[in-house]
Amino acid sequence: MRKLILIAAAAALLGGPAIAQNSNNGNRGTAAGIAGGAATGAIIGGPVGAGVGAVVGGALGGALAPPPPRVITQVQQMPAPPSVVIRKRIAVGQPLPETVALTPIPDAPEYSVAVVNDQRVIVEPRSRTVVQIVR
């Protein structure tokens, strides 16, 4: 029961701001997050867990939605920061190590860019989570 209360508190804190900032592109991430969160919550906490999991999953899924095309274009056109080599595989949804320097994107302060293992990645700077690998 204590875990369920903690999950509900996290949902209340994360749910509103993360979902409110979603664009139309974020709806797919939110929908996938809701579905995945509900399934995981149902396994852990039954019907109540499914509801809480859906809220938390929706918030996190929306937060990891791909950036708008204008941000991707700007990242492709801006001079690349120096590449950093790390042994860990880079993947969307995974945080970058603290040793990787992030460069803010001028017209989109909600995103930063880094070059890791010769790949440009768009990152959510507060959590350092990779939201897109630019190819």
TrEMBL record:
InterPro entries: DUF1236. It comes from the Bacteria. It holds the Pfam family DUF1236. Keywords: Signal. Residues 1-20 form the signal peptide. This is DUF1236 domain-containing protein. It comes from Sinorhizobium terangae.
